[in-house]
Specification:
By secondary structure, this protein is an alpha/beta fold. It has helices at residues 3-28, 47-55, 66-75, 94-100, 110-123, 149-155, 177-197, 215-220, 230-233, 240-243; strands at 37-40, 60-63, 82-85, 103-107, 127-132, 162-168, 206-208, 225-228. It has a single domain, classed as TIM Barrel (Alpha-Beta Barrel). β2 (60-63), α3 and β3 (82-85) form a beta-alpha-beta unit. α1 (3-28) packs across α2 (47-55) and α4 packs across α5 (110-123). The mean pLDDT is 95. It binds pyridoxal-5'-phosphate.
């Protein structure tokens, strides 16, 4: 096998393992396999390797920095990749997001909502959007405080180009499974509340939660999207504290 074929095979293997674990978590919790979407997270993975990941079956890719995502989407524009932005967005970057991204999972401010809506209208398109909630209460994490979600959501019908799909969170980084699970349960309860009380036209069926270290727990607690990077692409060169200041 040449080196590229070998790398493709390696990514396929990792993907297969993650998918097996997802399936097992679904069985444990009595859920349909089709109710969980795996979003491969590709931040820091170079574009050339993403070409191989595409060949291995990753056709959706999650990135947390808009600049990095933009560059990769340009380099790989011959492939039919759906890009998900899963990290904090500065208002002045909304125009880039509106051009190439398929979905945005980190909405936590009305300023960003307004600007993104405006930019999407200019582009003549709409976008799937998830509201980010800070379920762990850690100051290092973005997202709305759980108590603020309800009022925030009431404003979203003003932004008709945003197709609200659900909620996103990062759980606490802890080896204590109970504390991690608590974050996921909190999210499920907020989602269930919004299903009853959110304004008409908004949908809160989706729960994007769970990463390489905790996606199986997240599925047991109701995740419909898991965002998995390192379990597919290997350890990132920099520690988590680089991406989430104050953590790790
Ligand atoms: C990096 C990242 C992930 C994936 O983390 P892994 O540990 O690589 O699985 C998930 N969600 C967000 C928002 C991220 O930035």
């Amino acid at each position: 096998m040449d080196e590229e074929a070998q790398q493709i095979a390696e990514i396929k293997n990792k993907l297969a393992t993650v998918k097996q674990n997802i399936a097992a978590a679904c069985v444990r919790s009595g859920r349909e396999l089709s109710s969980v979407r795996l979003l491969p997270v590709t931040k820091t993975v170079p574009a050339e390797r993403l070409r191989l990941a595409y060949a291995a079956g990753c056709h959706e890719m999650g990135e947390n920095k808009i600049q990095e995502a933009r560059e990769k989407s340009e380099t790989l524009k011959d492939l039919n990749i759906k890009w998900a932005i899963i990290g904090h967005l500065q208002t002045n970057k909304a125009k880039y997001l509106a051009r190439f991204a398929n979905e945005f999972q980190a909405l936590d401010s009305l300023k960003v909502a307004a600007e993104l809506d405006k930019r999407l209208q200019i582009e003549g398109r709409s976008m799937d959007v998830y509201v980010q909630v800070n379920s762990s209460g850690e100051a290092s994490k973005f997202g709305l405080a759980p108590d603020d979600v309800r009022t925030f959501v009431d404003q979203l019908p003003n932004y008709s180009s945003l197709r609200i799909k659900g909620l996103m969170t990062l759980a606490i980084f802890s080896t204590d499974h109970d504390r991690v699970r608590e974050c996921f349960i909190k999210m499920r309860n907020i989602r269930d509340m919004l299903r009853q009380e959110a304004p008409a036209g908004l949908s809160f069926e989706e729960l994007s939660m769970g990463m390489s270290g905790d996606y199986e727990l997240a599925i047991e607690e109701g995740a419909t999207i898991v965002r998995v990077g390192q379990a597919i692409f290997g350890k990132r060169p920099l520690p988590d504290s680089h991406y989430w200041p104050g953590v790790g």
